Amino acid sequence: MAQIKLSNLRHSYMPAPKGPDDYALKEIDVTWRDGGAYALLGPSGCGKSTLLNIISGLLTPSEGQILFDGQDVTTLPPDQRNIAQVFQFPVIYDTMTVGENLAFPLKNRGVDPATIKRRVDEIAEMLDVADMLGTRASGLSPDNKQKISMGRGLVRDDVNAVMFDEPLTVIDPHLKWKLRSKLKELHQRVQATMIYVTHDQTEALTFADEVVVMQDGEVVQIGTPVELFERPQHTFVGHFIGSPGMNVLPCEAKGDRALFEGHEVMLEGPTHGDGGRTDLGIRPEYVGFGDTGIPAHVTKVSDIGRHFVVSAMVGNTALKAVTEHSVPEPGSEVFLQFKPEQSRVYRDGWIATQERAQ
């Protein structure tokens, strides 16, 4: 396995890019440590696949370097980067058995039969397919086919990284959680460097130790799932992660206070910078109800099982609150209370408040 470093990386599909808008990938600096579990998360068109192709060697970047354990591999072809890839659609040979499919990457590299058998048996046991080794792959269910595809990526123990490109997209929703859990278990057991590309926040947050969130070819935040939820560095992160996403409310800000629809809100700390669009960001989970606070009109209450999502209007601005108890009725008038340590200001999308000293 290897540490993977992307340094000053940019890419444009145009022969002579003139400005930032001409780049599919804007400047990216990321380091993935050896043996870590990572996710590239973002909507379609944000640059995830372009970045994946650059790391794997299918695409040479316009600028910057890719380093594996300090070695510059920017211009090396895929077969010299020693990377295993698992794609959206299972890549297996239907005419082969499960065992033959798992063994193929090792046979192709001239590995001795005893080692092949040992590795195939180990991976089959991890994937819960040991009883299928003699089964022809054409008769497998879609989820088992993807398991075998994953196994082909994991069977080699000499790869620098294993990359997963939207591997659960074609899997039935009720089977996805099983494969997500299995993939997490596999990482914990084999300790390979794994990079998981997805647009699904649940897949990213349940698999990865650290998530790289991308928007419009740019990395907007890198952090643990807890960090992304608790303190989004950009309104896009707050909106994209969480269900429902973070409330982004127009406001005016000065010092450690924000003025939202004529009501003063205490912030997590002092605001810095000036100019640009100013918004107040707070997650629905940190909006509560009380006897005093910001007056609001409840427009809708949704029971989603674990809790209730309350939609409300404050003046002309809509927002949401999440609560487990004391659920107001639709049409009622309530008072909202914002948790100060989770209330922060964003200027032109980027966080603009400092954490208050403890």
Description of the structure:
The chain is of the alpha+beta class and 358 residues long. It has 2 domains: 227 residues, 3-Layer(aba) Sandwich (Rossmann fold); 107 residues, Beta Barrel (OB fold (Dihydrolipoamide Acetyltransferase, E2P)). A 6-stranded mixed beta sheet has the order 6-7-8-3-9-10, with helices on both faces. Strands 16-20-17-18-19 form a 5-stranded antiparallel beta sheet, with no helix packed on it. Helix 2 runs parallel beside helix 4. The relative contact order is 0.12. The mean pLDDT is 90. Belongs to the ABC transporter superfamily. GO terms for molecular function: ABC-type ferric iron transporter activity; ATP binding; ATP hydrolysis activity. Keywords: ATP-binding, Cell membrane, Hydrolase, Membrane, Nucleotide-binding, Transport. Its EC number is 3.6.3.20. InterPro entries: AAA+_ATPase, ABC_transporter-like_ATP-bd, ABC_transpr_FbpC, ABC_transpr_MalK/UgpC-like, Mo/tungstate-bd_C_term_dom, OB_MalK-like, P-loop_NTPase.
Kindly list the characteristics that best describe this protein.
358 residues, alpha+beta, Rossmann fold, OB fold (Dihydrolipoamide Acetyltransferase, E2P), five-stranded antiparallel sheet, ATP-binding
How much strand?
25-35%
Structural class: alpha+beta
The neighbouring-strand order within the major sheet is 6-7-8-3-9-10
Proportion of residues in helical segments: 10-25%
Text of the CATH class of the largest domain:
Alpha Beta
Query: What is the terminal separation in angstroms?
Result: 40 Å
Q: Rg, please?
A: 24 Å
- Compute the number of structural domains: 2
Q: Mind telling me which CATH architecture of the largest domain this is? A: 3-Layer(aba) Sandwich
Q: Mean pLDDT across all residues, rounded?
A: 90
Shape: globular
Give a short account of the largest sheet: 6 strands, mixed
Could you give me the name of the CATH homologous superfamily of the largest domain?
P-loop containing nucleotide triphosphate hydrolases
Give the number of helices: 8
CATH topology of the largest domain: Rossmann fold
Topology pattern, helix = H, strand = E: EEEHEEEHHHEHEHEEHHEEEEEEEEEEEE
* Number of E strands: 22
**Low-confidence segments:** none
Family: Belongs to the ABC transporter superfamily.
Pfam families: ABC_tran, OB_MalK
Domain ABC transporter: 4-241
InterPro entries: AAA+_ATPase, ABC_transporter-like_ATP-bd, ABC_transpr_FbpC, ABC_transpr_MalK/UgpC-like, Mo/tungstate-bd_C_term_dom, OB_MalK-like, P-loop_NTPase
